[in-house]
């Protein structure tokens, strides 16, 4: 078990910062597929990120959401038409097909597709080629790649909607710790971070494992479990001090870091690392200062945006384009 949070001086900053492949190399392949993770590793990522949801038979699979109509071909399977439904998840009504209504065997009959075809039309060439991967497959890939490359390739799983899953009889924490422990990963030295936008989920994990925990933060709203009033309160010096009692670091929306913004400094002062998200190449996702002439799908100055975040002191960053991220890591602008 982990003890109380170490003091800041026990957490020297990572240099160079780590490159976290957001859902794999998702700028170049459909997200959360083994192909996307494999390409990310080839491009130099330090960590690959699987968002985790559960199947009906309690198997962790990698999907951005438990609603899968946007990332699989489930709508093309008439045998599953009757499972189309509406659910309330974290206070929002969502209509579609949900992983918790499928066994793993059923889910494996589906194939992944590009979630953002309007911005990444080239990725649609890979639609229909890849199944939905399990956490076990992602772990096995990271271990194979570590052996093959001589680099340590880690995983950076996010627990998606843990309070919701617990409410329908599928609690995540013990299952996740058990699977990671079976892989030999249960300490702060393991090449693993577990991240969540919720708080109680991380606090429960703190009692179960020594793996490093990351509190995600958005620039608006608050955790779905309502454990704190808002992410804004969490980002204050007092809020960060509270986060440091259960988490190793924070994962803030990238708009919260940068020149003239205190979050990185305040987090480091509280003994927390900072891994910001998400750096995407397309104009549609870039702040105006990093856009270039062209349409929303045109690639802008993502390398400079990442470099500026590194200059601001982040210890790592999530990117859909790990090749560019690795170039910044290895030869800062």
List the defining traits of the structure above:
disordered N terminus, 333 residues, alpha/beta, three-stranded mixed beta sheet, 11 helices, 13 strands
Outline the structure in words.
It is built from eleven helices and 13 strands. With 333 residues, the chain is α/β, with parallel strands linked by helices. The strands form three sheets. The protein has an eight-stranded parallel β-sheet with strand order 7-2-1-13-12-11-10-9. A three-stranded mixed β-sheet has the order 4-3-8, covered by helices on one side. Strands 5-6 form a two-stranded antiparallel ribbon. Helix 9 links the parallel strand 11 and strand 12. Helix 10 crosses helix 11. The longest helix has 15 residues. The radius of gyration is 19 Å and the shape is globular. The N terminus is likely disordered.
Counted by DSSP, the helix tally is 11
Helix/sheet category: alpha/beta
Beta-strand proportion: 15-25%
Give the strand tally. 13
> Runs with pLDDT <50, length 5+?
1-14
Helix content: 25-40%
Largest sheet: 8 strands, parallel
Mean pLDDT: 95
Gyration radius over CA = 19 Å
Question: Which shape, going by the Cα principal axes?
Answer: globular
N-to-C order of helices and strands: EHEEEEEHHEEHHEHEHHEHEHEH
Describe the strand arrangement of the main beta sheet, using strand numbers: 7-2-1-13-12-11-10-9
- Ends distance: 40 Å
């Amino acid at each position: 078990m982990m003890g109380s949070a170490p003091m800041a001086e026990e957490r020297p900053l990572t240099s160079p910062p780590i490159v976290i492949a957001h859902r794999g190399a998702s700028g170049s392949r459909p997200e959360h597929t083994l192909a996307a993770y494999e390409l990310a590793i080839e491009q130099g990522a330090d960590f690959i990120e699987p968002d985790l949801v559960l199947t009906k038979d309690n198997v962790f699979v990698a999907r951005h959401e438990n609603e899968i109509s946007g990332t699989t071909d489930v709508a093309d399977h008439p045998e599953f038409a009757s499972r189309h439904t509406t659910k309330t998840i974290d206070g929002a009504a969502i209509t579609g097909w949900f992983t918790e209504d499928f066994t793993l065997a059923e889910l494996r009959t589906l194939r992944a597709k590009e979630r953002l075809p309007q911005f990444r039309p080239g990725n649609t060439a890979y639609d229909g080629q890849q199944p939905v991967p399990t956490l076990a497959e992602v772990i096995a890939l990271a271990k194979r790649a570590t052996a093959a490359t001589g680099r340590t390739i880690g995983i950076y799983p996010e627990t998606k909607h843990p309070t919701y899953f617990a409410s329908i009889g599928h609690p995540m924490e013990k299952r996740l710790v058990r699977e990671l422990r079976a892989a030999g990963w249960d300490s702060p030295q393991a090449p693993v971070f577990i991240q969540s936008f919720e708080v109680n989920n991380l606090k429960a994990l703190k009692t179960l494992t020594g793996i490093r925990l990351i509190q995600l933060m958005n620039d608006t709203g608050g955790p779905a479990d309502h454990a704190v009033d808002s992410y804004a309160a969490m980002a204050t010096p007092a809020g960060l001090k509270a986060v440091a009692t259960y988490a190793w670091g924070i994962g803030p929306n990238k708009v919260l870091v940068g020149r003239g913004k205190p979050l990185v400094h305040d987090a480091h002062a509280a003994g927390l690392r900072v891994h910001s998200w998400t750096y995407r190449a397309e104009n549609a996702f870039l702040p105006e200062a990093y856009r270039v002439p062209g349409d929303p799908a045109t690639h802008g100055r993502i390398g400079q945006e990442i470099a500026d975040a590194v200059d601001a002191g982040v210890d790592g960053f999530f990117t859909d384009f790990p090749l560019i991220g690795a170039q910044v890591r290895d030869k800062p602008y």
